[in-house]
Amino acid sequence: MSGEIDAVYVYDEQNAPLIEHVYRSRPPSASAILPLYLAHAEPRPSLLYIPSASPPVTVFSTVESNLLFLAISEVDTEPLLALEFLHRVIDVLEDFVGAPLLSTKVQANYNVVAQLLNEMCDGGTVCNTEPNALQEVVEVPGWMGKLLGGIGVPGTSTPALGSTNPLKQSLAAASVSQGPAIPWRRPGVRHTSNELYVDIIESLSVTMAPSGRLLSALVSGTIAFTAKISGVPDLLLSLSAPGGQHVLGRKIELPVFHPCVRLARWKERPGELSFIPPDGRFILAGYEVDLLPIDPDLDEPPSHMEKLFLPAIVDIRKSLGPSGSDFEVRLTLNTNFPGQSSSSRPGATRSGSGASTPSFLGGGGSGSSGPALEEVVVSVPISKSVRHITDMQASRGDAQFLPATGLLEWRIPTGKDAGTLTGTATLRCSVSGYPSADDDLEDSTPTPPPQSQSQYNAHLPAFFAPSSTSRPTRRTKAQVNASLMPNSASVSFSVRGWLPSGIKVDSLNIDQRRSRGLGESVKPYKGVKYLCVSNRGVERRC
Amino acid sequence: METISRISSMLETARELTLEAAQSAAINRTSGTDYSSRTYSPAHIKKLLDSRHEREVLDGMRRVISLMYRSEPSLTFFSAVVKNVASANLEVKKLVYIYLVHHAEAEPDLALLSINAIQKSLTDSSPQVRTMALRTMSGIRVPVISQIVSLAIKRGCGDMSPHVRKAAALAIPKCYRLDPNTLPQLMGYLETLLGDSQYFVVGPAVAALLDLCPDEIGLVHKNYRSLVKKLVDMDEWGQLATLRLLTFYARKCFPQRTQKVKRAAPEAFYDDEKQQQEAQDDAEEYEVPVMDPDIELLLRACKVLLQSRNSAVIVSVVRCFLYLAPSEYIASAVGPLVALLRTPQDMQLIALYNIVAVALRVPKPFAKYTAHFLVHANDPPHIWRLKLEVLTILFPHCGKHWKGVIISELEHFSKGTDPELVRESVRAIGRCAQGDTSTAGMCLRILLGQISSPDGNLVSESLTVIRHLIQQDPSSHKQTVLQLVKHLGSTTHPDARATIIWLVGEFAGIDPENNIAPDVLRILIKGFADEMEIVKQQIVLLGAKVYLHHLYRITLLWRYILLLARYDTSYDLRDRARLYKSLLETPSSTQLANLLLLAPKPVPHAPSPSETRKDLLIGSATLVVGSDAGYHGLRGYTNLPDWVELGQEPDPSLRTEDVKPDTSSNTTSMTAGDRLDKALREHKTTSISSRGRNGPAMPLDPAGKKTLDQWLEEEEEETETESETDSEEEETDSEEESSSEEEDDESEEETDSETEAVHKEAQQLLG
């Protein structure tokens, strides 16, 4: 087992090779490996061993904005190392070339891409993936530099086209010679307007039993941070949750942190993140919250379930109508978010010191109008044996059945003109399957096997199957329709300005004593954004 | 942890993104033409490259690199590009280097021309230039230069800049691949680099060691403790290499010691109990593993890494704990391992493979996280397959509540429409019943309920699992068979019917006075002609068994069966019938028939699908690929060695570090003021001495030698005397600036003349 990567290949939307970068030895070329990779049926796992290639290779793959990224290795490489590397490549490319990553953008910036790939991995050993460190060593052409200026690339690393300022170069060289004091932060950062943004994104995943009982409710949260601030600032981000600080420690489970976060501080006081940020945008921490903690050794179902608020719940009733071919999806929306009384703005908590009055952005620019429920889509997986769905009647929004994906999608409008959202909406559909052999035979003479069975059923002794004499031997229309019914439904949505865990940013302070290169008078602009996403996350079995 | 690109796309709504995409496409269409080289002929690009203006050369180089990445012919520019190798412009240099590394193999002779200029850059004043030069030189795949590369690495190892030393470490494997004969020299360099004080030099050095000579543990002994200490500060990739090295190292160097310990017996309450206890004393003495303090050092350093953002690091720590540490360590790593399910789907899959492999060994700690493994509707097959497996592994370790949830989940999926999912969940129910016999009854009830389902696939799969369950405990399942027989009337699926008939035959011998087997046979015979062949075979077999059990009391029926089979269209069936017929014809062969037909069947056992992967190394690609990788796994795969035997291990004293007058290691007890003074003194001496050494006068920052934590700590303490240090710093800064400025100017002139020399040289050669 090793950690070597032999090559990185990127293919565009039409699967034409876009980037081909070989790090060591002679792996099969990008055009040679693609058909072998595509030969595996979809969905393709992220690790494929291709023994038919010469030499045999393992292929690690991921897809990002329609571009296919492959990492190739001839030997046993730690799969997660290779995949983490690919994701870092994607992040860095987006950072330098601009998001979303498009093939045209990559093509226009091949020289930057070449330098980046060259720096990130040397001779098969991954070595430098910190965006800040890469900005130090990768030269970006002038107009790109201007583009990047928006995301905080300073003048020092982007000299104007072709100009070589010896002073600047020697300055950069001096920092290089000493080795970076902080490996993730570029020295000499300067911004005209100092800004700090915290984005907390929680992704909700809830499973409900057919009875409507909650089986599990998990939240996985991510804190994204954008630092555009001069010098070497030392920041302190305090989180809070309803119930106080000691609750927070138990609430936030299994956290992972960017290397800049001082772990000792977090251990001592959970909820406090003390760090010197990298310049630009980065993921500060990830965590999860179990909204429904159930002891694994529990024998009885938990009697007092924690009251859980969900903005959208879906329910399904099936085998309706005269022939049992109809089903009804019922969506219950609720925008009375708990803890959001009309007087208080979302997250309008203020910290003590005057220097840190975070100016919070409300939900999606709607200012003080509380959390906004958006992009509500109900997805119902439909069996492959369903031919088409007729009579789709939605009380709100419109539904669409896509046989290619096997999904029935029902979008509910949430815009301003949609009126009040709270309430229920229903969608009624009827399915029809493919005509089967049974249907054809319905009127013709019964086929021998069922006949013979019914014959001997009549002669069965009492202990055999008393009910089976009356049981029809052929599948009835209702039974056929029952097999076409969906057996789960899930709802996707996003809520700006509300987090299911109730976690909030309490304060964001700059430790002036420990920071350097930031004037006393500088009061950076601070912004906080909360977003709850459910990507088919609320799932109802039925 | 989520990646920044995924989070960004979540924050921006889909509409915004598409809008931006369209906009950027439009921008590209207008301004992109400027950068695409299609409008430029090769002659034009050549002219740009030959230009005397740096700006034009740079433009030309950008075009060449674009051509190279577009897989269009760019080799024709080789000589024109090589001429620019000594360009003073850093940007041009970088692009030329990239081009060189890419094409050197195709034009080895021309590539050699550039070596001289690169070699000169190795002594450049700027460490960045030195780094690039070393990196490029080692990257040129022309075996002739291996000795030059080796010398360059040697020089790089002693460089003042840690970046150059890092480049030297990274160059070692490249040099080895160029010429394996350089190994002895390279190992010498490695020894120096492994002892480097900079954590980001050590990481690549460890990676190089693993690449060259992973078994050479002699190089590690002396640096073991410093490696463990630096582990926390290294970048993620360095941590990965170090963890890999130290896990193997620990197995080779720390024998498993045990110590006899007396159990602290509770105070006896009664006297006679006391006597008993004394008698048992010898037996109560038991052995506990004793950990070497050095291995404990490693394990404690690993614990901090469990909060790393890099999933590969977490799996590496899990590997370390699973194979090296007592069980309480692995229990603490289970949570972070499960947390990897938050990663994007491609990594989730790999994480799940590792979770299954760990859960097969230590399932208990995972029970807490059962909720994480519930299958979602949008999980692709390779994900839900592993999730179902984890659920069945955890099943015996959950409380009744979760057992109920798991079973009803499986029941739910078994009624789905995806045949694969149905099959897997029914099998999973079987494994649950097998893992926890107390719930076998419940599982069986669920499976029996599914026999009447119209889905043939579900029915036959359920029956196979039911058969396994019955065979595991035949004595208590007489009633179950009776129930199954009732379903014969309604089930049309041939596999299902065959299974039921076979089971009836197996139970034909029990309770001969009150057995249903002859009756079942009688009824089945009536529909014999209309059954499928597989069912017919079982009917004939049932007949033979019943005939044998009831010792020829059903002779007429038996003859009738034989007659029916004799005129069947299937020759296989006719043959079978003939076999049974002759076997049962003479009473003398009853013994033989008993052996053949009524032999006790082995109890089937359905292992977890990943049971075969259990012994593969956690975190390896072979674990994911499984048996497809062949018997020895993928190339380069080695399993962990066994623990070294007691007495065979290397002397622990080898690991004691050489006592160096290391100033940074024992500064913690000093006051801030003392430290500052000392740092200043050091600063002066080093800056003076460094002037004599490697060319440039670069004052060595004392911070450069310290670990990250020390640096940060120091910074905290420094605040008291900040004003003082600030002014000091400013002074040195200005000094430094002016001196290096001069240096730079000089070197620029030098390189200029160099460029011209190369130009001439190249022209002559081409001329």
UniProtKB/TrEMBL annotation, chain A:
InterPro entries documented for this protein: Adaptor_comp_med_subunit, AP2_Mu_C_sf, Clathrin_mu, Clathrin_mu_CS, Longin-like_dom_sf, MHD
CDD domains found in the cross-reference section: AP-3_Mu3_Cterm, AP3_Mu_N
Subcellular location: Endomembrane system
Bias type Polar residues, positions: 336-359
Domain MHD intervals: 193-541
Main location: membrane
Gene Ontology annotations for the cellular component aspect, listed alphabetically: clathrin adaptor complex; endomembrane system
Stretches for region Disordered: 336-372, 432-456
GO biological process: intracellular protein transport; vesicle-mediated transport
SUPFAM superfamilies per UniProt: Second domain of Mu2 adaptin subunit (ap50) of ap2 adaptor, SNARE-like
UniProt keywords, alphabetically: Membrane, Protein transport, Transport
Family: Belongs to the adaptor complexes medium subunit family.
PANTHER family hit by this protein: AP COMPLEX SUBUNIT MU (PTHR10529)
The name this protein goes by in its record: Pc22g03620 protein
Originating species: Penicillium rubens (strain ATCC 28089 / DSM 1075 / NRRL 1951 / Wisconsin 54-1255) (Penicillium chrysogenum)
UniProtKB/TrEMBL annotation, chain B:
InterPro entries to which the protein is assigned, alphabetical: AP_beta (IPR026739), AP_complex_bsu_1_2_4 (IPR016342), ARM-like (IPR011989), ARM-type_fold (IPR016024), Clathrin/coatomer_adapt-like_N (IPR002553)
Entry's family note: Belongs to the adaptor complexes large subunit family.
Domain Clathrin/coatomer adaptor adaptin-like N-terminal, chain residue ranges per copy: 38-587
Name of the protein described by the UniProt record: AP complex subunit beta
Function: Adaptins are components of the adaptor complexes which link clathrin to receptors in coated vesicles. Clathrin-associated protein complexes are believed to interact with the cytoplasmic tails of membrane proteins, leading to their selection and concentration.
GO cellular component, one term: endomembrane system
GO molecular function: clathrin binding
Chain intervals with Basic and acidic residues compositional bias: 652-661, 674-685, 756-767
Compartments in which it is found: Endomembrane system
GO BP annotations listed: intracellular protein transport; vesicle-mediated transport
Swiss-Prot/TrEMBL keywords: Membrane, Protein transport, Transport
Gene3D superfamilies per record: Leucine-rich Repeat Variant
Matching PANTHER family: ADAPTOR COMPLEX SUBUNIT BETA FAMILY MEMBER
Chief location bin: membrane
Organism name: Penicillium rubens (strain ATCC 28089 / DSM 1075 / NRRL 1951 / Wisconsin 54-1255) (Penicillium chrysogenum)
Biased composition (Polar residues): 662-671
Region (Disordered): 265-285, 645-767
